[in-house]
Amino acid sequence: MEVCSLVSCADDISSLLPQETPPSPKYKDLGLQFSAVRKVRGDGNCFYRAVCFAHLESVLHSPRAMQRFKDQIIQSGEVLLSAGFDEASFSHHQSTVLQVVNQCMAAEQEDTLLRLFNQQLISDSVVQFLRLLTSAHLQTHADFFCNFVEAPDLKAYCRQEVELMAMECDHVDILALSQALDVGIHIVSMEGDEQQLVHHVIPEGADPAVRLLYQTSHYDILYRRTQP
């Protein structure tokens, strides 16, 4: 297995540009606003993997923010229990996330984060925990989320669309995970025929540290250009 086959090293944004010249206005815009991209494997789990990696990377050098995230993961066990999950179904995955956070807190190095996220068992276990947490958040806030789910009932939707690995996420899942982790997410979409990029900030009005590129049902991690 490649060293960086699940989450790549950061690449210059030009690596995304199609070969045709000149590039479309969208690609020009992308190059003006963002300096780099980190590719995430397109295996149906890219959103969850990208969000967790990007968030941890953004707080890597802030012990207080890392501790806050660790506390959230510990407390999220209660959310899962209140949604009806058996502790045995999530405790191993929760422990894996905490193990990743602890190792990152000790090292404070991007290399450690990258190494852990490219170990399939660890990386997939982190994804599975985030899927279960998303499901739990949807179910414990069912009065709100049931209005946005096209399924016979929310529980069935969660079991079939959220909890299973390799299932692509929907907008409702993105909002649920953002709320559950209290993480702002900026999604830059290449979709649509318009000549401009489409920007979504979730939740509205947030100051997001996580920036993702959405293109052909896939998410990669973006890095904003720092203003001169």
Describe this structure in words.
This protein has a single domain (7-224), classed as Peptidase C65 Otubain, subdomain 2 (3 helical TM bundles of succinate and fumarate reductases, Up-down Bundle), CATH 1.20.1300.20. The mean pLDDT is 94. The protein has helices at 25-33, 46-59, 63-82, 87-107, 110-117, 120-140, 142-145, 154-162, 171-181, and strands at 7-12, 34-40, 185-189, 198-202, 210-215, 218-224. The protein is of the alpha+beta class. 51% of the residues lie in helices and 16% in strands. The protein has a 6-stranded mixed β-sheet. The longest helix has 21 residues, at 87-107.
What brief labels describe this structure?
228 residues; 9 helices; 3 helical TM bundles of succinate and fumarate reductases; six-stranded mixed beta sheet; alpha+beta; 51% helix; 6 strands
Concise overview:
The chain is an alpha+beta fold and 228 residues long.
